[in-house]
Amino acid sequence: MRAQAEPGSGEPRRLRTRLDADDRREQIVEAARKLFAAQPYELVSTGDIAAAAGTTRTNIHYHFSTKRELFFEVIGRFSRIPEDVVVAQGGSAESRVAAVFHRWLDALERNRATYVTMLHAASSSDPQVSGVVRQSMQAWERRLVEIVGLDPLSGPHAAMIRSFQAMVTDATAAWLERGELSRAHIEAMLFRVLLALGEAARDADGSASG
Length: 210
Hints:
Helix content: over 70%
Number of strands: 0
Shape: elongated
Strand content: under 5%
Order of helices and strands: HHHHHHHHHH
């Protein structure tokens, strides 16, 4: 609820102005989040965002100097992997992988539009935009490597996880964007494939050293 100054309280007017500005900024971010999820970054203009947010392009540029800065604000809120998603201590590899994917898919459902935005941005022609998404994906890949007990510094292990990540990207798009897969399908598939990938990597390492 927005703070209101009581009559005669002498509360500085700048407090109410600041809160109003914060509300407007959030309104702009939310409008941009929905538009970026609906179409590629390059096709969304600041005029589109202004219209969706019920404001002006001048007001958008007051809060964000460029469309790119606004886009980074949108995906930055989701690109950092929350610790409660990736922390999986104790138990078997199977239980750790199951717990991590369950929490991660929960996070995707809560942030569906922002995640779809990131999927679109991964193929952006703007190197800074696509680079931010790649950094987020790489952080997730490193955590997956660790969870299944592989070596994050191993070239073959990293390449195998990148291949798995490509499948994750297409599978989650089939679930969240195209409606071709259910969450149950996604969760079962990712769980089994990642465990099999870990076993395959260790078998290949053993064969190479033997």
